[in-house]
Amino acid sequence: MLLKVWYVDDEFDLCEVFSDFFSSAEVEVKTFVSHLAALQEAKINPPDLLFLDYRLKGATGDWVAQQMDPAIPKYLVTGEASPPCKYPYLKVIYKPYRRQDLDEIIQQYLDLKQKAQKNAS
After folding, report:
1. Can you list the pairs that 110-114 forms with residues at least 24 positions away whose Cβ atoms lie under 8 Å?
2. pLDDT at position 1, please?
3. What is the mean pLDDT of residues 45-60?
4. Is 12 helix (H, G, I), strand (E, B) or coil?
5. Minimal CB count within 10 Å: which of 48, 51, 100, 112?
6. Distance of CA 45 to the CA centre of its chain
7. Domain ranges for the chain
8. Residue 111: what pLDDT?
9. Average pLDDT of the chain?
10. Is the pLDDT of residue 30 over 80?
11. 19, exposed or middle or buried, with CB in 10 Å at 0-12, 13-18, 19+?
12. 14: closest CA among 82, 77, 108, 64?
């Protein structure tokens, strides 16, 4: 079973880099340059893990996070030194991020999902 990881950022190039860095045989990365498309898709097929940029065209990551299921683990990715966040993200990751930091987060959720699947068998 794949871990579904989403990245929402209105900069196409950053979405492409994220996908290139973190897609693998075990991790399905889906990126969105439109927060509205991400919200619509989340109603049908929510992610296992969500990374959100703070500044999006027409919204903030906080607003998007509040619209999604609270059970989805959410991490903020931002270039701002002190984003005025109100949403209780699990962690704020500052751009430019270190690939290793995100690798560790993704691996943690992949391990949890594999353990849960093994226990269910």
Report:
1. 110/3, 110/26, 110/27, 113/1, 113/3, 113/48, 114/1
2. 75
3. 97
4. helix
5. 100
6. 14
7. 3-120
8. 95
9. 96
10. yes
11. middle
12. 77
Place 3 in a pLDDT band, splitting at 50, 70 and 90: very high
Distance CA 79, CA 119 (A): 39
How far is it, in rounded angstroms, from Cα 76 to Cα 93?
Answer: 6
pLDDT tens figures, 59-84: 999 999 999 999 999 999 999 999 99
For 3-120, the fitting CATH number among 3.30.1390.10, 3.40.50.2300, 3.90.1170.20, 3.40.640.10 is 3.40.50.2300
DSSP 3-state assignment of 5?
A: strand
Tokens of 93: 């990751």
